[in-house]
Amino acid sequence: xxxxxxxxxxxxxxxxxxxxxxxxxxxxxxxxxxxxxxxxxxxxxxxxxxxxxxxxxxxxxxxxxxxxxxxxxxxxxxxxxxxxxxxxxxxxxxxxxxxxxxxxxxxxxxxxxxxxxxxxxxxxxxxxxxxxxxxxxxxxxxxxxxxxxxxxxxxxxxxxxxxxxxxxxxxxxxxxxxxxxxxxxxxxxxxxxxxxxxxxxxxxxxxxxxxxxxxxxxxxxxxxxxxxxxxxxxxxxxxxxxxxxxxxxxxxxxxxxxxxxxxxxxxxxxxxxxxxxxxxxxxxxxxxxxxxxxxxx
Length: 297
Ligand SMILES: [Zn+2]
Fold this sequence. Notes:
Blueprint: E1 2-3, H1 21-34, E2 38-39, H2 46-50, H3 55-63, H4 68-74, H5 80-103, E3 105-108, H6 129-139, E4 146-150, H7 157-162, E5 169-176, E6 189-193, H8 199-217, E7 221-225, H9 243-259, E8 264-267, H10 276-293
Helix pairs in contact: 1-10, 5-6, 8-9, 9-10
The protein binds zinc ion (ZN).
The site of zinc ion has 7 residues, from loops.
């Protein structure tokens, strides 16, 4: 199942640098080949958010009482729509995980808000959908051990911090060394790439580290953050992957997980290419490949 909602598109002031239109375009693109699989996710409730986030932070986000600095750190102006979007997106990854555990695969057409920490948001991330979803699966007794495969070009610092010291959740982050966040957290496994890294080096590195992460995690469930921002044309990425290279990346991840019978929930994470259609192409290719691999069409 594919989870998407119109609230993923948050109205922003003119000139805001976040490419919000990618969510509407991706939803439209995916509707073109998988409309029957698309579902509207429930919003994550307070009880679900509290397993990964500080209660005071959830309240302040919900009521719009974060101080100016904390709001600026998130990068979006506060609005009821911002709260709704953040809750729906966490709910979508949660639903994708539930479905993955039932049927092998679930997809959120947003999510991957991995810079959200327990008690603060950052870098366009309000709530950490992967963390909220992983905790929900544990509490619901659906999965005990979870592997987060974070291939967004930026380090999954919020996820790493939330699960720091938790032996049941393994966090793998493959990211640019010179990129945001400049003060990195410590994931279970971090792989730092140099600026300009291209397809071959990227795929060789991933091919080596992923089996190690799977062995260490022995997961009941994987959550895959399929960021579009390692793309050469990304404004924020600093790497040089092609679209074909990104498709190979997705194939590598999905094949490795499938080979060991590990269910996977996929979230889209970042993408800031000059041309928003490039971001949509990359995400849509991930969705297509995942559906094919799992025999859904
Ligand atoms: Zn990113």
